[in-house]
Design goal:
Length: 330
């Protein structure tokens, strides 16, 4: 059953730059063709699970401030399922084509390897159904190999081989799930890799293990046939932004900023003056002298400079002119 957590929020639509509706897109017109491609296809927005639905509004100075029903008790299978359904309601109403997640964002809390695999598989089955019913797609998945206390000293760089192996299990399962769900990319997010002090660190061993881990992931990617990015849109709201609508305000404003940036960039390209200034500045490399020295060794270039009695003069980089030109399009 699809969630109605955001029942009071109407689907977000494009209404144009003059719209007074604070929950409407003013610049993000997904079907507008920009430089030969639909805006949606240029930007490929994805809303994330973690800060949007997993963070309870806490920080180092205080506890949770968000009254989300899936945070009311234990993060069990029922709470995780509710969170997934609310997330897809959000993705649909925001009208972003993609979403992204860490493994633990979408599953119940697990106490061991077996539970992790079971709860994650349960979540992936549900995500597959939600994708089919909503038309949303997965931009990328990843494994959270940093938040749990076991990763205090890193994952692939951890001095304990069992931690290395636990991370390998998570990444293997997350990579395979991302491939199954049609993900366009897979992310390796090493939030706690590295070291705190050289006093207790075997640097060579850690670097070797890190390199081996990356190679193992790439080998497995090829083995399962993962051959395939976009914008991950992480519009983290403030701890006082506790109303459900605040999530929409944060995302709508951010998406419009990126869309306006795309339109401005396209206008700069189509105008052509900035590119022309840059081309003129480097034109010498495309002329006779620049082409000639491209095929000479150091001595040959030096001899040519003497032979032609070159006397190059400095020229303006015209930075202020270019800045003014760009500001015309912002």
């Amino acid at each position: 059953m699809m969630s109605d957590f955001f029942a009071e929020i109407a689907p977000i639509a494009y209404e144009g730059p003059d719209s007074r509706n604070e929950l409407a897109y003013r610049f993000y017109d997904k079907d507008k063709v920009v430089l030969g491609k639909r805006m949606e296809d240029h930007l490929r927005f994805a809303a994330c699970f973690w800060h949007t639905f997993c963070w309870p509004g806490s920080d180092v100075f205080g506890g949770a401030t968000f009254n989300r029903p899936w945070h009311a008790g234990a993060n069990d299978s029922a709470a995780a399922a509710q969170k997934r359904e609310v997330a897809f309601e959000f993705f649909q109403k925001l009208d972003v084509p993609y979403y992204c997640f860490h493994d633990v964002d979408v599953m119940a809390d697990a106490a061991n390897v077996a539970e992790h695999r079971r709860f994650f598989a349960e979540a992936v089955d549900h995500l597959e159904k939600l994708q089919a019913s909503s038309g949303r797609k997965l931009l990328w998945g990843t494994a959270n190999a940093f938040s749990h206390p076991r990763y205090a000293a890193g994952a692939s760089t951890n001095p304990d081989p069992e931690v290395f192996a636990f991370a390998a299990m998570q990444v293997r399962d997350a990579l395979e799930a991302t491939h199954r769900l049609g993900g366009q990319n897979y992310v390796l997010w090493g939030g706690r890799e590295g070291y705190e002090t050289l006093l207790n660190t075997d640097m060579k061993r850690e670097l070797d293990n890190f390199g081996r881990f990356l190679n193992l992931v790439v080998e497995h990617k090829h083995k399962i046939g993962f051959t395939t990015g976009g914008f991950n849109f992480d519009a983290k709201v403030r701890r006082q932004s506790m109303d459900p609508a605040d999530l929409f305000y944060g995302h709508v404003g951010g998406i419009d900023v990126v869309a306006k940036g795309l339109l401005s960039a396209a206008a700069i390209i189509e105008d052509g003056r900035v590119d022309a200034i840059k081309a003129k500045r480097y034109a010498g490399w495309d002329g006779d002298f620049g082409g000639t020295i491209g095929g000479l060794d150091l001595a040959g270039i030096a001899d040519l400079a003497v032979e032609r009695a070159i006397d190059p003069k400095p020229v303006s980089g015209q930075q202020e002119r270019i800045e003014n030109l760009i500001n015309r399009f912002l």
